[in-house]
Design goal:
Structural class: alpha/beta
Distance between the termini: 33 Å
Mean pLDDT: 91
Largest sheet: 7 strands, mixed
Radius of gyration: 16 Å
Order of helices and strands: EEHEEEHEHEHEHEH
Strand content: 15-25%
């Protein structure tokens, strides 16, 4: 279980958002976004910002930093270390299981991530045997290329019901815009409902993106299956 920063927007939250940071950052990176994102009338939400483990990263000369997996190549198809991705997906599943134990059902849990954290979000989402309320993938790509898609042969149809929010900067020098566009296309081909947004920015988050994400969150809250 990774160490985490937690923020609750109200008492006894019955919704949860697990948000994964990017390479070299930590759980503090997106915690300040909560006040900008949340609306006053929303139900109480627990935001969980885990810290990735500190480990050597190949493309950075073996320098140790917080990383969800080793980045072994600049080429997207071979960039992600498959063993590391699997280990981080297991960490994510442990965090999700803890939220369920706390009384938050999977249908009220949103998994989000930026850059490397977004890649783990997509990898975890593709393998879900019980759908989450949604997936958020910011400035990222679909890791493991065709291997990730091949694993979908064993993925239940229920996992494909997870709505996905994908956003990317057109001038991103770290993860090319085409990678985000390709991830959205592949997910749609597999049957996922994808809300794709592009912005005139680099490898970052902008105000327009937060506005769009807020509207997407609002739709997830309104579609709460637990109220039916």
């Amino acid at each position: 279980m990774p160490e985490c920063i937690e923020t609750e927007t109200g008492p006894s939250p019955r919704w949860a958002v697990v948000w994964l940071h990017g390479l070299g950052a930590d759980g503090n990176d997106f915690a300040p976004l909560v006040p900008e994102l949340v609306r006053p009338h929303w139900p109480a939400i627990r935001f969980v910002f885990p810290h990735a483990p500190v480990q050597p990263v190949t493309i950075n000369g073996g320098m140790r930093m917080r990383s969800w997996y080793d980045i072994v190549s600049f080429d997207l198809a071979g960039r992600a270390d498959s063993k590391g991705v699997d280990e981080s997906v297991a960490r994510v599943e442990a965090l999700i299981a803890r939220e369920i134990e706390r009384g938050v059902p999977a249908s009220r849990i949103i998994l989000a991530g930026f850059s490397q954290g977004g890649a783990v979000t997509l990898a975890a989402g593709l393998r879900r045997r019980e759908p989450l309320a949604g997936l958020v993938a910011l400035s990222t790509y679909l890791p493991l290329g065709t291997d990730a898609l091949a694993r979908l042969g064993d993925t239940p149809e229920a996992a494909r019901r997870q709505p996905v929010f994908v956003a990317h900067g057109r001038q991103d020098p770290v993860v090319p815009y085409a990678a985000g566009e390709d991830a959205a296309r592949r997910l749609r081909e597999l049957g996922f409902t994808v809300d794709f947004h592009a912005y005139p920015m680099q490898h970052q988050v902008c105000l327009e993106e937060i506005d769009a994400l807020r509207a997407w969150f609002e739709a997830r809250l309104q579609a709460d299956p637990e109220k039916r």
